[in-house]
Amino acid sequence: MYIKGRYIVSACALLFFQQALASGMDCTKAASVVENAICADKPLYELDAQMGAAYRKLMKAAPAQADVKKAQRQWLKERDRCGEEVSCLKRRYQDRLQILNAQWLDAVAYKPDDIDKQVIEDLQQRVREMSKENPEFALERALNSMTLGYVGSSFSAELDEDEQPLFPTTIPKDVTQDEWKALQASDIKGAAESGQTSYTLMDLDGDGQRDLIVETYSGGTGMFHYTETWRRGDSRFIRRTAEIAPQNSNDSVLFYTNDRGANQAVYLIGARGKIYFAYQNGSYGEDQVYLLNPLKINRQVPTISVRYDYQLTVPHTQYIEDSDKAYELEPSLQKVLAKAVTGLDTNTGMTGQQKKPLCPIPQSAKDIEEYYGYGASYYAIEPVADFPVIIGDDCYVARLINWFGSYDEKNGLFAKLTMRKPETESQERGYTVNGRRHITQVSTSIGKAEGGAETY
User: Fold this and answer.
1) CA atoms within 13 A on the CB side of 307
2) CA distance linking residue 138 with residue 130, whole number of Å
3) Mean pLDDT, rounded, for 408-414
4) How far apart are CA 170 and CA 164, in angstroms?
5) How far apart are CA 358 and CA 353, in angstroms?
6) Which N-terminal residues, if any, form the signal peptide (predicted)?
7) Using CA atoms, how far apart are residues 411 and 453, in angstroms rounded to an integer?
């Protein structure tokens, strides 16, 4: 299964305190200045109760309980230095709760095993082998060679009179009576409040029972696609993040893709007896692929990084933006532009305010910042580099932009060179730039995912 497409920031923050607050300290036994201050302030008392619940929860999950106890005793000493100052105590508690939350997530999150590490090494080797024959699309071909052909039984949500997706009310085709009973007992909704929603039953963990994949398209400015997974239990389906996140939060989503403002794709692959969502997050000069465990909390994931160099060209034939009309560049101008973009990468001309002006600043300048960088960018494009372009006696501040490394067989990299003269009202000048890439480095690591797979 292949899903093309997003970028959203995760909202996970202290979500594992959703349960009812545990009892706080026994205020009838408060003896110290700090304890009396806590008992006299209701919000502070609630923080103390949350602390107790968080600490006990971490102690159950942590492999090294002695270290947790030691750190907690050290924190209590730091807390007590606040005395009766409520604002200081609140900061101490809030900071500690965030730490406990992160430590608990680390403790319950999936730890990549030897098989996972071998799979990412296998993928690396396959990319290297395929790059000998096709250095442009070796990564995509390697992933396609591992993609599963069978994706299980799929069915769609029903729409109510307001076009809101509802879980089907009648048993879909190819769903067993046992699965239907478990589905009805699970309060399953779409991964977003509205949008086209589909469901797929497929065994994701090899236990002989089919699990559930929920895919939702929610539109919006980024044309977002969400994917959420539910594990089949004895009598019902259980959300992947049921223990730590409310059902309708973004944190219940395994990953999301964005068709506008990102270059992301997902491959459902199988290797060495396991199934993974291989999440590809692209940018200029680099692709990252994260192997996501479909039914687990992913904090540290096997990752392959593929880096590229580009041979950039400025075509003689240019097209007027939002038009089919074409024109030919003058040879002298084409030569200047081609020279300007030669060898550009993310390290040769950072965007934003440079340390030195890109164009000479005349004594008559009124806004010298105009000479140091191209200016603000738009979220749907990726700025690569700011640099000067000299045409005759005129100096232009230029920027190379692209669409997060988006690449196709016909044009290769599609990019734009935009340029303007500082402190002039003349319109910006824009030219199409194409590039052919080749792989310069393939490496693997275990680390935190980014893009739409970054949820915690």
Assistant:
1) 7
2) 5
3) 94
4) 17
5) 10
6) 1-22
7) 28
The predicted model scores a pTM of: 0.85
Q: Which helix (H) or strand (E) holds 142?
A: helix 138-146
pLDDT for the residue 349: 53
- Does residue 184 have a pLDDT over 80? yes
What pLDDT shows up at residue 8? 34
Strand partners, 442: 306
Helix (H, G, I), strand (E, B) or coil at 8: coil
The number of beta carbons lying within 10 Å of the beta carbon of residue 265 is 18
98: number of CA atoms within 13 Å, CB side?
A: 7
Segment 20-44 shows an average pLDDT of 81
- Tokens coding 70: 């030691």
Query: How far apart (Å, rounded) are the C-alpha atoms in residues 360 and 73?
Result: 60
Q: Is 208 left (phi over 0), alpha (psi -120 to 50) or beta?
A: left
One-letter identity of residue 407: Y
**Which amino acid, 142?**
A
Tell me, what's the pLDDT at 199? Answer: 95
Count Cβ atoms within 10 A of the Cβ of residue 230 and give its class: 0-12 exposed, 13-18 middle, 19 or more buried. buried
* E strand residue ranges, 293-428: 301-313, 317-319, 326-328, 382-391, 394-408, 412-420
Q: How far apart are the first and last CA of the chain?
A: 25
The pLDDT of residue 1: 52
- Is 123 within 8 Å of 289 (Cβ atoms)? yes
Report the DSSP beta bridge partners of residue 313.
434
How high is the pLDDT of residue 355?
82
- Give rounded-to-5 percent helix, strand, coil for the chain: 30, 30, 40
Q: How many CB atoms lie within 10 A of CB 115?
A: 12
CA distance 236 to 451: 31
State the Cα–Cα distance between residues 286 and 45, nearest whole angstrom. Answer: 49
Contact 168, 158 (CB under 8 A): yes
Residues 430, 319: contact at Cβ < 8 Å?
no
Spell out the domain ranges in the chain: 2-9+112-307+442-453, 21-108, 310-440
Closest alpha carbon to 342 in 407, 435, 420, 440: 435
For residues 307 and 108, the model is more confident at 307
Whole-number Å distance between alpha carbons of 51 and 94 = 9
Half-sphere exposure of 335 (CA within 13 A, CB side): 4
